[in-house]
Amino acid sequence: MWDNPTRGLDSKAAGEFARMLRREADENEKTIITTTYQAGNGIYDEFDKVLVLAEGRVTYYGPRSMAKDYFESLGFICPKGANIADYLTSVTVLTERVVRPGWEEKVPNTPEEFEALYHNSPIYRSQMDAIESPEKLSHETEDLEIAVAAEKRKQHLPRAKSVYTAGIWSQIAACTIRQAQIMWGDKFSLIVKVFSAIIQALVCGSLFYNLPNDSSSIFMRPGVLFFPVLYFLLESMSETTASFMGRPILSRQKRFGFYRPTAFCIANAITDIPVVMIQVTCFSLIIYFMADLQMDAGRFFTFWIIVISQTLCFIQLFRAVGAVCKQFGNASKVSGLLSTIFFVYGGKIYEPFVSPQDLLITS
């Protein structure tokens, strides 16, 4: 018996959960009862029978495939393309139901009237005839009593038992595939990230375009190197918000024993690598060569690897802040404090204000 098990899950996970219940019922010959609301047609079609209640009264109990036709025979219209489950729960709500023209005075209005009509229907009689008599189920009661007594006689040793059926590596692989599919489904966000990195690199590169190879650019070159760190730091701060948005789904999956939070976090870190590499590569190729930094492969790839590493570290840091803080306001404050500390102690703000002429004199 499942009480609203799909609450908090996205539509894809909710559909997979309903199909899992269907397989469990078919393969192990179990009867599964589920209460739910706002169930899509994909979830609704997995069940054999449906029970509709209104203030504790049975307005319908019978085959799933006949529920829509039954209420339409009472004078209610099911909107085209609507969820059948939403339609069944709306017929008793005066502000939501749609009544067939000319049937306004014929349709039932109270739960008692709905129940009376159902008791007079052929579906009710067929369902009552299908109920097994208590005498035929007496052996099941005896089997249950024997099983309970045998269980009580066992001496259980208290030990921690994992609720997860799959290993950590299998969970990481499944979560990685899932995150990759989610990211690929949101191509617009990926395009915006890459496009914004290119625009920022062009703007910054135009400010430091073709730096001269003498002492006049000695304080401008560190600025070129510091800007990628600053830009990707500010962009990584959005991970604090993202961690709060995905928290309800993660908590639900943990509760049902789908995935470990550790596997989910590792999968996120893995899927971040290709996206960050694309962003940093586009950014580095533009700003490095526009600023005319040293044309050496070793120095360029050192710059490239360091920017990628610090970006991945910033992303995980702000995700950790979002995971530790229970309230979004506190997480925002901590993120702002950390970013300010990085600004101050990054080294760029403490460069001495010395002109190139003074530097030439002292040297």
3D structure, described in words:
There is one protein chain. With 363 residues, this protein is mainly alpha-helical. It has 16 helices and four strands. A hairpin with a 2-residue loop joins strand 3 and strand 4. Helix 9 (187-207) packs parallel to helix 13 (261-290) and helix 13 (261-290) runs antiparallel to helix 14 (297-324). The protein starts with a strand and ends with a helix.
In terms of topology, how is this protein built?
Layout lengths: L1 E2 L7 H18 L5 E2 L5 H4 L4 E6 L2 E7 H10 L10 H7 L20 H9 L2 H9 L7 H16 L14 H18 L1 H21 L12 H17 L1 H8 L1 H9 L5 H30 L6 H28 L3 H18 L10 H7 L1
Parallel strand pairs: 1-2
Antiparallel strand pairs: 3-4
Number of helices: 16
**Would you tell me the overall average pLDDT?**
82
Residues in helix, %: 55-70%
Strand order of the largest sheet: 1-2
The helix-strand sequence is: EHEHEEHHHHHHHHHHHHHH
Poorly predicted tracts of residues: 350-363
Number of domains: 2
The secondary structure category is mainly alpha
Q: Judging from the principal axes of the Cα atoms, what is the shape?
A: elongated
Major beta-sheet overview = 2 strands, parallel
Care to count the β-strands? 4
> Per DSSP, what share of the residues sits in E-state strands of 2 or more residues?
under 5%
State the end-to-end distance. Answer: 83 Å
Radius of gyration: 32 Å
